Amino acid sequence: xxxxxxxxxxxxxxxxxxxxxxxxxxxxxxxxxxxxxxxxxxxxxxxxxxxxxxxxxxxxxxxxxxxxxxxxxxxxxxxxxxxxxxxxxxxxxxxxxxxxxxxxxxxxxxxxxxxxxxxxxxxxxxxxxxxxxxxxxxxxxxxxxxxxxxxxxxxxxxxxxxxxxxxxxxxxxxxxxxxxxxxxxx
Length: 186
Description:
Layout: E1 5-9, E2 14-20, H1 26-33, H2 39-42, H3 48-60, E3 64-71, E4 74-83, E5 100-106, H4 117-128, E6 136-139, H5 146-155, E7 158-165, E8 168-176, H6 177-184
Parallel strand pairs: 5-6
Antiparallel strand pairs: 1-2, 2-3, 3-4, 4-5, 6-8, 7-8
């Protein structure tokens, strides 16, 4: 399989990879959206037909790229990497043209609680920072999602402030390139 990004993570001794989502990934992502640990935060536990329509629109949105995340070839996660300019979150702070944001979910239950969230997030942030002009990655996890907020902090994201978004109250968090590269010796 051809990936858009591959990284051997020494902390877990596994290859992390990302490939862009296609419409053929709809059933897998729909299954994940209906998992008990996912749907309270994503609110996409809808019919497969409705989800296919949602995914088609998301794939057509040019300000974001959707990815499946893999551990040693096994699809385990879903990612939305987006440009802050043109997104609702840009109203929450003074965004720079190359700021990027990220949404994620770890879909496969058997990978939960095993320490994979941080290496996966770290790999995605590393992938996003391949754009030289990007100096900041933004996240706005649901303010109730303490586990993910903890993972974002461990990765190098700093809490900025709660923000009201159309579908949730999020915690605006920033990961500055300099902080990330210093923390993880990129």
